Amino acid sequence: MNNAELLAALKEQGARIDAVMEEDLAIIQSPMLAEIIRHAIFQGGKRIRPLLTLLAASLVGPPPADTARLAISFEYLHAASLLHDDVIDHAILRRGAKTANTIWGMEPVILAGDYLHAHAMALASEVGGPAAMALIGRATAAMVESEFLQMHNAREILISEEKYFQVLMGKTAALIAAACEAGIAHSQGSPDQRLALRTYGTNLGLAFQIVDDLLDYLGDPAKTGKGVGNDFQEGKMTLPLIKTLARAEADDREVLVALLKGTPRERSRQLATARTLMEKYQGFALARAQAESLLRQALTGLAIFGEASAKEPLTGLAHYVLSRDK
């Protein structure tokens, strides 16, 4: 299955997920709340998390009829986290459109995120029972703790690769892993099958974020919807920079550290210098190699499912993560 075939198949499933969310969200009575949530959810997005729930549930036979309703709880939790992130970051744009907090203000948007959190947990409990509730609860706790870790790391100019991955585990990987495991659990998968999906989801999530880090430096703004070098301009220590600093000679390391201690404007002016040094010390290549290694680990665990046809899109998703350009 090539990328075009994969994306076409996932687009069809994504439309199904959107229809289930449209029906589910019709219960909201407050016009403002409904408007904020529609803005957060239907403003774009790949629906990766609910798609993974559906695909995981299909690995051991036809999934239960209500799997799509369980799946959307993971999209709600993801959307809630983005609403709260944009408030915390005072963000103005997301996916090329004005953020909800820019349009409605902070208080209504925080409350809308809280609603999505609560509704996601209620839905997970109703459809998936205690197993799904535990998974989504642990993922939520990990996401919140990662924000505190990130705030702590922001006070340090340099952070280790270990601290970088600690944040990624909670911020990105935990929810993706939970979405995968909830799907197989809903289809009564065995403990070993659940572990395989948890491993797949964790490594897929980590690799996905590393590729995001690479696209920030190497992507086409017309495709990513973001300016090149935003992370460096903001002084964020992402994996290509961390790996470069670990290998750089003293003089070059000093240049990069001085830029990280400087102003966003200085970093913006010196982006080309930073990129040259990252290429010199293979920061980009090493980060990509780590993403490839993580995805190999993700796919190895799926061997437990033999020749199940549902493995094909999960394998395709792993390859897509490496080749995507936005």
Quick rundown:
The chain is mostly helical. The protein has helices at residues 3-25, 31-41, 48-57, 67-89, 100-104, 106-154, 161-186, 191-218, 221-224, 230-233, 239-247, 250-261, 264-269, 271-280, 283-300, 311-323; strands spanning 93-94, 97-98. It is globular and about 60 Å long.
Could you explain how this protein is built, in words?
- The protein has 326 residues and is mostly helical.
- It has one domain: Farnesyl Diphosphate Synthase (Orthogonal Bundle), CATH 1.10.600.
- It contains 16 helices and two strands.
- The protein has helices spanning 3-25, 31-41, 48-57, 67-89, 100-104, 106-154, 161-186, 191-218, 221-224, 230-233, 239-247, 250-261, 264-269, 271-280, 283-300, 311-323, and strands at 93-94, 97-98.
- It has a two-stranded antiparallel sheet.
- The longest helix is centred in the middle third of the chain and has 49 residues, at 106-154.
